[in-house]
Specification:
141 residues; single chain; 40% strand; 9-stranded mixed β-sheet; alpha+beta; elongated
Length: 141
């Protein structure tokens, strides 16, 4: 029994397509990640200044399912700011929170992160209004 090379071409093409489709999202994410090199403001009880924003967290580190108030001083006319976080170690989805204006240039909200099997986890992300974005990180224990 002889195998013709013309029969192997479609099988090889299908296998190659499956392999590329499986690894391509990770490769894209890796290349995107290498292009994004931001200075992150480490959130804590000590105020962190980045660009127009001054950010303070109620606790130095977050704990799963325990709310911690975040206060952002940002001269903006926007009624809300959008906070978005993602874990840098494992896929936990995207955590989003609208920070509401509580006074002239002041925004507040309560961050409550989900339970995780890791002992410690760093979350990175941003806070943005309609025009600008600042980059933040926070540790969870």
């Amino acid at each position: 029994m002889s195998i013709k090379f013309s029969h192997l071409a479609p099988v090889t093409l299908i296998v190659a397509t499956l392999i590329v489709g499986f690894y391509l999202p990770d490769l894209i994410k890796q290349f995107k990640g290498s292009e994004e090199n931001h200075d992150y403001c480490q959130l804590s009880q000590t105020s962190c200044q980045q660009g127009p924003a001054s950010i303070t967290l109620e606790d130095d580190q977050l704990h799963p399912l325990k709310p911690s108030q975040i206060t952002v001083e940002w001269p903006s006319s926007s009624p809300t700011l959008l906070l978005e976080l993602k874990s840098n170690k494992m896929e936990m989805g995207s955590y989003k929170l609208l920070l509401k204006k509580s006074g002239q240039g002041s925004y507040v909200g309560d961050i409550t992160l989900p339970i995780c099997i890791e002992d410690t986890l760093e979350w990175i992300g941003s806070i943005k209004n309609s025009d600008e974005k600042v980059y933040i990180s926070v540790r969870m224990n």
